[in-house]
């Protein structure tokens, strides 16, 4: 390895891993020690990553404010150094970090807000695909409906929130003062997807959340209706299932419908 390549490698380790070997290659200035001079690069690197996190989590940043968000961001940079050349993926682990690292884990609304923003970002970046139209359903005979299986759109995902983070997110998005963070008695069941070019989310009832999760795993419509019958009026299960399916199709949530074997 050439001296220049070695110096580059030591410089990189000094920034990414805190290795001080590179300090032997740096001279003190008349006014500052080498540790301070190199520290400028270390701080600038971390600040650039925190700036990327601000872009990915604008409303979490708004909720925390500049000082608290930057403090949290630098803690995340230290705990989870960047391992991908694309900054888009750097903050993917933020929800889990906020859930497990104190003092942030003492405030579960933070991890919920980060998880919601991550899901919306992922929906925006998801692959393109055709969507099922209501007219497509006309090709299936009534007797075939019990065997219908559904393919979710690539942008669709589910999220369970333990707090009122969704309401806080909406308030911040609308430039309103959010309510105080609270833990919900029952988790909020969210469905996130991209409609045209806009990331969306809505809250599902426990019944619809169950049906979506099962449908996404390939459970056919007839079995879904049998499962719905355990939630409410058995005689109305098929009608409720058809209503949920109608909503999914009009929202562009499905990319294929087929008759299973």
Automatic annotation (TrEMBL):
It holds the Pfam family DUF2063. It comes from the Bacteria. Residues 7-98 form the Putative DNA-binding domain. This is Putative DNA-binding domain-containing protein. It comes from Bradyrhizobium icense.
């Amino acid at each position: 390895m050439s001296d220049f390549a070695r110096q580059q490698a030591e410089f990189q380790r000094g920034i990414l891993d805190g290795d001080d070997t590179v300090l032997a290659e740096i001279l003190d200035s008349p006014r500052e020690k080498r540790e301070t001079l190199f520290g400028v690069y270390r701080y600038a690197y971390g600040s650039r990553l925190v700036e990327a996190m601000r872009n990915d989590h604008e409303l979490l940043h708004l909720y925390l404010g500049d000082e608290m968000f930057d403090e949290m961001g630098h803690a995340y940079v230290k705990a989870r150094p960047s391992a991908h050349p694309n900054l888009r993926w750097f903050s993917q682990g933020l929800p889990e970090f906020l859930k497990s690292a104190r003092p942030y884990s003492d405030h579960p609304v933070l991890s919920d807000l980060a998880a919601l923003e991550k899901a919306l970002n992922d929906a925006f970046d998801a692959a393109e695909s055709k969507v099922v139209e209501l007219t497509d359903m006309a090709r299936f005979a009534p007797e075939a409906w019990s065997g219908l299986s559904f393919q979710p759109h690539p942008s669709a995902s589910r999220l369970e929130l333990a707090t009122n983070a969704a309401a806080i997110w909406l308030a911040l998005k609308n430039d309103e003062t959010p309510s105080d963070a609270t833990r919900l008695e029952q988790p909020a069941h969210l469905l996130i997807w991209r409609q045209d070019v806009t990331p969306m989310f809505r809250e599902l009832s426990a019944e619809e959340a169950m049906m979506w999760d099962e449908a996404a795993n390939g459970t056919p419509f007839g079995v879904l209706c049998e499962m719905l019958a355990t939630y409410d009026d058995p005689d109305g299960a098929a009608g409720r299932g058809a209503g949920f399916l109608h909503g999914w199709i009009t929202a562009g949530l499905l990319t294929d419908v087929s008759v299973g074997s």
